[in-house]
Amino acid sequence: MTIGVKRGRSVTLKLIQNRTLHLDGRIHPDFGAVEATLRNQLGSHPGGAAVCVYHRGECVVDLWGGYKDDEGTLWTQDTMAPSFSTTKGVAATLLHIYADRGLIDYDARVADYWPEFGQAGKEEITVRQVLSHQSGLYHIRQMVDHVDRLLDWKYMIRAIEQTTPVHPPGTRTGYHGLTFGFLVGEIIQRVTRKKFSQLVQKEIANPLKLDGLFIGTPEHEIARAAKLIFPASIKRMAQTSLGSKLEVGASRLSQLLQRLGVDSDLSSIFDALAPRGVSDFDFGSPESLRVAIPAANGLFTARSLAKMYALLANGGEFEGVRLLSEKSLARATTLQKPTGKLSVIPFDMRWRLGYHGVATTRGFPRQAFGHFGFGGSGAWADPAQELSVALIVNSGMGSPFGDLRTASIGGAALACAKARSRSAGLLGEPMDLATI
Known about the structure:
Blueprint: E1 2-6, E2 9-12, E3 14-18, E4 23-27, H1 32-44, E5 48-55, E6 58-66, E7 81-82, H2 86-100, H3 110-113, H4 127-131, H5 140-143, H6 153-162, E8 173-174, H7 180-192, H8 196-205, E9 213-214, H9 232-238, H10 242-259, H11 268-273, H12 286-290, E10 299-300, H13 302-313, E11 317-318, E12 321-322, H14 326-332, E13 342-343, E14 369-372, E15 378-382, E16 387-393, H15 404-423
């Protein structure tokens, strides 16, 4: 049936309502593979999920299903999910808006905007190095005594100001798993003299009329949040000393590999991602969601993420709203020069300025960029296909940069978009094929 008309084009969408599986929403028939993929995922994982896809300016997938907690509360149309590192892509987009206005220069020193930053070997670190994870400031475990410090913005800023880079800036690429957001966020706050969480609303959510995009969530919106559900095996692991044993083992293995001439830094994973007490820290609690942790605690709908990335896939403009010029967007999404030496994540993430490359089960689209998160969420844009994809979930583990669910949803959406473009005679750019 015809559900609506968007930008002068009739969009044929199929209504989905399957209460046994609980999958609701609407989908264009050309994107049936996305529905099938989400069904399989909901059937094999606890909790719930939502997927949204835009293609050539149209919302072609808007699905949600499963459960927002472990008590069987249905996931609804307005449910949001804590999305971990997917948050970084939103934070980076906000910085690019101010760079587009000439308020931030990627090659300027961070200390030019944030004078107290310019000490302890950080004097020459540039904004570009921060955005491409080359500043050497990922070692949060050495900066703070407990993970609860993440809830105190001022404390985190002082800790970063006083710390020394773990390696000379620009000599390694090391994923700034938790510090990235405070670095980017404080640069923005120094330039604007306004609160980061308010700027997300003013510059992104409000202009695009997004239904759920928060980093530092107002009290009245927190009831919409899905509860994070982790496997029982992970909960048991958190109650043992296995984590510390793994850290010691990683450090010893790293030392052995270095003696053998292999450039490895496995212990950096713990330095960047495991501040003390992290196994007991609830990123999805109301206390956590109320404050801004711009690398890790965004609360989003898939609909909002997909629409923001639809704008990025369309040259910085969408439905009459322009947030970035095409020139600025091109600069922000240009592949950055790799350092050749890697810490934290032992493979090349194909970093842009705050975004990484995109892996799907149908390959690696060359122009695609976005950010995935721990637990399985993720969102990205592919300008070559005029495509944006977003997935939010509340259960599972995955990795700090998504899991197979992210890749599978992305692969299904990419294949459908390419098939749709071929049928319309609109072939996109070539892609590097690979199987994950």
